[in-house]
Amino acid sequence: MSVSIEELKLKLSGIEGIQDDVVVSCVERLNQLILQQEKTWELGTTSCQSLADVLRTPSLRTPLGEVGLIKSLSVLMESASGNQADFQIQALRVLGNLCFDHESNRKHVKDAGVVTIAASYLGSGRVDLVRTVCGFYLNSSMDYVPIQHEIAESGAAKKLIELIQPGVEDDGTITMAIKVLDNLVSEETVRKIIADLSTVRTYVTMIQHLYTSGDYVDELDNLENLADTLLQLILDDDQLENEIVEMGALDVLLDFLENAKLVEEEQEEKDKLEDIRKTMSKIIICATSTDSKMESLYNNQQLLSRLLAMAKNESEPVHQCAVYILGNLARTDEHCIELVERYQLSKLLLDLYQKTENATFQYAILGCLKHLCLPVPNKTVIGNDDCIQIVSSMLSESKDMLKRNQFLTIGIIKLLCAGNFENCKRVVEQDVLLLVTFFIKRVDDVAAKSEATRILTNLVKTIWVHQNNATLKKKMMDAHIVDPIMELVRTSTFPVLKNDGVMALILIFSDAELTSVWKETLPLANAEPTVQLLTNQEGNNSDEKPESKSFLQVLVNDICSETSEVPVQIQCNMCLLLVKLVEAAKQVQNQQDVILDIKNSSDKFAQIQKSSELYKYTDTLLKALEK
Fold this sequence. Notes:
Elements: H1 5-12, H2 20-35, H3 41-54, H4 61-66, H5 69-79, H6 85-99, H7 103-112, H8 114-119, H9 127-141, H10 145-153, H11 156-162, H12 173-184, H13 188-194, H14 197-213, H15 220-234, H16 238-246, H17 250-259, H18 267-287, H19 291-298, H20 301-310, H21 316-329, H22 333-341, H23 345-355, H24 359-372, H25 376-384, H26 387-392, H27 403-417, H28 421-429, H29 432-442, H30 446-463, H31 470-478, H32 482-491, H33 495-509, H34 515-521, H35 551-560, H36 568-586, H37 592-599, H38 602-606, H39 615-626
């Protein structure tokens, strides 16, 4: 395929400041070369060399791309045997320069099949040709997914990986190969093609070499790309994450994280190293996060001691990495209990929490603390460490931008209150309860509101069954906890959460000591709901429509509707709650509306079959209504 010289001249005529005669003569010689049976490759080489040089001028790239030069070069490259390396080098220079910051030319290159042709050159043994292929791939694949795909699918990506060898003097080839591969892994399908154990080993080995040799000081760009690519390769792949541990590379990576530094470099270089250390921290966290390695890593006493020491390090990447790993290891009750009792990890974390204003580090600390709060024996110890008072300030309105941290804080307080009376006392007596109730009123995130309300249900279920609790109960009722608990039952789509609220309300409306406050709380049962716009954890509007039925209507529907997905055991609890509401309403003046609203559904309860497990509860309810 020859280029139309007349068309080329026409396109060049409108461009000022170029040597159009040089361009035209070079293209004419390439046209001649295409037609030759016995090709004069030297002619093609010199022509391409001149074209590559003039194509440093951006204005020439569009006209030369539009007249078909790319296709002509691909035809010549296909016909060139392995002995025409000089021509191949110069042709690739032309194509690489045509592609520089030029998407339409990249498309022409893709359509012409040049990417696959160039892949065969990577095994040529010619160092300069291999280097030029890398440069061509770098220019042509930048932000252009179709070529990224072809580099991977043609096998070129694997050959580029083979070029990354420690201890080999780099003439630019390794640097460009690393850059090309870093571009490729941003694309999911491409990443899957090249992400395997061999690739991970290559990258880890190169990073280890750069650090242990000290060469990283002069190779920050390469190290940055190596680390970025490695992180993308292993992310969410247990086998690849495990490979780093199995290679025995963890200690070296931790050494780099703790000790890599630049002494006399510019601030820009120091900032780059800091970014690399942050990436390395993420790599280490991923490598230590898999279930299959958790036991062996935890049982490595040297590693565990190192992590505990790293948590106190002043460096942000170092202490964050340590806390995240400790959180990953704290995923069994046995580990959590030992970390708290033997290593006083909760005390250490709370001390770190109070010393930092870094929200990301606080998030790591809170995540680890939440794991530690799960085992029953830890609840008292962590409560005694003053955890509730320390973390609860995260629920103040001034912290509302830190939604992830607030959500973890809610989870910690909820877990510490589950069945632990002393921690419940702390929540009520230290005014944490007010922070929780204000938080529930203030936020519109469904999950956060529900979890915070479960703190209230845990408080009720723990305090109400404990002796000498009158003062605590009064403080809780003064905080108006019934409304949010009813809202949890009314609006939640999860039966377990509904049941949580139901059980707490049964205790409240069974408590004869609370007769004086029933007058305020009973009307909430049949009050018209205030419909509000709900959001999810990401801050987007929820797709679910807000529940428009009243609390009583929801209970009746959950019990009696044929489409109800509430398990029968929870339906029985709901019936029991209705009985308690009826009994409470009869003891308080001017509360007949609640009884009447329940009575209006009597026919629905009467339809429950005797054979149903629910029958004896609905029968008890109907009898309570008749009294």
